[in-house]
Write a structure and sequence with these properties.
The structure holds two protein chains of two kinds.
Chain A lengths: L8 H20 L3 H20 L5 H12 L1
Chain B lengths: L1 E3 L5 H7 L10 E3 L3 E4 L6 H13 L6 E3 L1 H6 L8 E6 L4 H13 L2 E3 L5 H9 L4 E5 L2 E10 L3 H8 L2 E4 L3 E4 L2 H11 L2 H14 L5 H11 L11
Parallel strand pairs in B: 3-9, 5-8
Antiparallel strand pairs in B: 1-2, 2-3, 4-5, 6-7, 7-8, 9-10
The chains are: A mainly alpha, B alpha+beta.
């Protein structure tokens, strides 16, 4: 079965780069205490979630190795 | 040393004109040292600081790759932090291994100290995490080439306020472009946007030429 895929990879890539520029401009005009506080919310939640992943070190290393191929 | 506080935007002036010093990212920049005041430390920052507290008493180091962009605010997580160290003799590595185990770290690779040392000697990375918490982890490697040695020789001291040594930003930007994944290009662009006014553009251009990459397509124009 063929499926139409309308995702525009190039447009997505450009949008990502535009976001990085916009975000960097926000960081530059925002006090350290504020941008770093907001960043900490994001990063800390990432690690809280990671701690709940039921992976063994061996399985984790296998996944990392596969991603690098 | 240049102190950068680019000043408020127009809207900021309207609403916060009584406290202009708190209106924008504040860093003190020089080629060899960057001070980031009042940074709220993330769990990742604390993990890195704890680890290098053990590492630094046994070997100098330099942090490279994704954490460098994250340290200055890039809005993404990472599973690992890449750290390069000079070659260690086997006994010195055994002592480092022992110290890390004593401080509650574990090596994710299923190897003993001898096996881990063999991996490092073959220019492979070994992964170290807090016991039973494999994310985040450190990927530790010996220097493998002249670029690694240059990165270490010219490492930059960051104060957040605790001291961390990272790769020079000009090399980091060029190297991220060289790696070339979407994530790496975004890291390069982010560092460029944050530090473009402080960096020596000719040095960035030289590193980009050395690594055979260009940044024009992404707006990194040097």
């Amino acid at each position: 079965m063929s499926m139409e895929l309308s995702f525009d990879r190039e447009a997505h890539r450009k949008e990502r780069l535009a976001f990085v520029r916009t975000y960097a401009a926000w960081v530059k005009r925002t006090p350290n205490a504020e941008w770093s506080r907001q960043q900490a919310v994001l990063i800390n939640s990432f690690f809280e979630n990671a701690r709940n992943m039921p992976l063994s070190p061996q399985v984790y290393l296998e996944r990392v190795a596969m991603r690098k191929k | 040393m240049v102190t950068r506080n680019p000043g408020p935007l127009y809207n900021d002036i309207l609403f916060y004109s009584c406290a202009p010093l708190l209106l924008s990212m504040h860093i003190q920049y020089s080629e060899s040292r960057i001070i980031v005041d009042e940074k709220y430390l993330t769990l990742l920052d604390r993990f890195v600081l704890d680890f290098i507290g053990v590492l630094e008493s046994r070997t100098p180091y330099v942090i490279v790759s994704g954490y460098v962009a994250i340290l200055f605010g890039r809005s993404r997580g990472t599973e690992d932090v890449d750290i390069l160290i000079p070659f260690l003799e086997k006994q010195s590595f055994a002592e480092l291994h022992h110290a890390l185990i004593n401080e509650g770290y574990e090596f994710l690779n299923a190897e003993n100290a001898d096996g881990l040392y063999d991996m490092l000697s073959k220019q492979m990375g070994i992964r170290i995490a807090k016991k039973e918490q494999f994310i985040p982890n450190i990927e530790l490697k010996f220097f493998k080439d002249e670029v690694d040695r240059k990165v270490f020789k010219d490492r930059v001291e960051i104060h957040i306020p605790d001291r961390i040594y990272i790769s020079p930003l000009d090399i980091q930007i060029a190297y991220k472009l060289y790696l070339g994944s979407q994530k790496d290009i975004e890291d390069a662009l982010y560092l460029w946007e944050i530090f473009r006014d402080e960096l020596d553009h000719e040095t960035v251009r030289n590193w980009m030429n050395t690594l055979g990459v260009r940044g024009d397509e992404y707006g990194i124009i040097v």
